[in-house]
Amino acid sequence: MRICRRKGEEIRFRESGFTLIELLVVIAIIAILAAILFPVFAQAKESAKQSVCLSNLKQVGLAASLYSNDMDDNLPSWAARVRPVNGGTSDYIPPDMQLMPYMKNDQVWTCPSDRVNRANPNGLPWWDGNYKYKLVKRSYAYVGPINTVEAGKEDNNTGVFKFKNPNSWDTIGRSTTELDAPAETIAFVEQWSASVLDQYVGEVWGSGFIDCDTHKLPGRHVPSQGPEDSAPPGCSYQYQTNKPTPGHRDKGNYIFADGHASIKTWSAVRHNDFYLFKAAKPSKTFTP
């Protein structure tokens, strides 16, 4: 308060500005709004990343469909033997390189949510040596035989590619006529868990989804929260110790053999002994 005197009378007036209490109230309101809005912004950002990730998989699915059309309805193999290029050191060509002529853009293989650090590229089995220097993350894996309750081990009725010889990596893609329901058969999964350190475009490690790799799928609970989190035969160690792919709010993006993409919960893909991964759909229901 400032006092002025004018010809014997006293005039009091207040200087302009905020009091301490008013400032504290404003700061409190800003803090409340930030607490409300920041999670909303984070969810919106993650939703945008999920949409891009799903769009990427749609392009992968389209490329696989075009490949199948050119190959008498046969889907790509997994680790086919082809001489390496550009100074590569492995003669196993990964699925991303088989589909690259149909998609051109190698960035499609990277989900924007994939924040897992990869291993040192030295020593990895590069088919295309140029990618040893590009280091493009591959966030998706191609589905082959996985372990199921029905088989009691690795199930040859699962996956869109199969092994020519159980003692080698040589594989062959299934014909779409082998699939009872292509629209209900998963061909590619979103996979970038902390246990996957070697997934790069241009090299074969981490490009296949086989055996016990189901523990990497988004949404699986660690520790287990019920029967759906139980391990298929031979996979207890991976299910007990390894964390899954974070995914998108515990959901994962999937591409099906007919080329369409969809986001699924863990329970949806785990249901009925991994029913969505089976080529010939069983009439018997399995638990979990």
Give an account of the 3D structure.
There is one protein chain. The protein has 288 residues and is an alpha+beta fold. It has one domain. 26% of the residues lie in helices and 18% in strands. It contains five helices and twelve strands. The strands form four sheets. Strands 5, 6, 9, 10, 11 and 12 form a six-stranded mixed sheet that branches. A two-stranded antiparallel sheet has the order 1-2. A hairpin with a 7-residue loop joins strand 7 and strand 8 (171-173). It starts with a strand and ends in a 14-residue tail after the last helix. The mean pLDDT is 89.
Mean pLDDT, all residues: 89
Order of helices and strands: EEHEEHHEEEEEEHEEH
**Binned strand content:** 15-25%
Helical percentage: 25-40%
Shape: globular
- Counted up, domains total 1
Query: What separation lies between the terminal Cα atoms?
Result: 76 Å
| Strand count | 12
Kindly name the structural category: alpha+beta
Radius of gyration: 27 Å
Low-confidence stretches: none
What's the total helix number? 5
What profile does the largest beta sheet have?
6 strands, mixed
Summarize the structure.
With 288 residues, the chain is of the alpha+beta class. 26% of the residues lie in helices and 18% in strands.
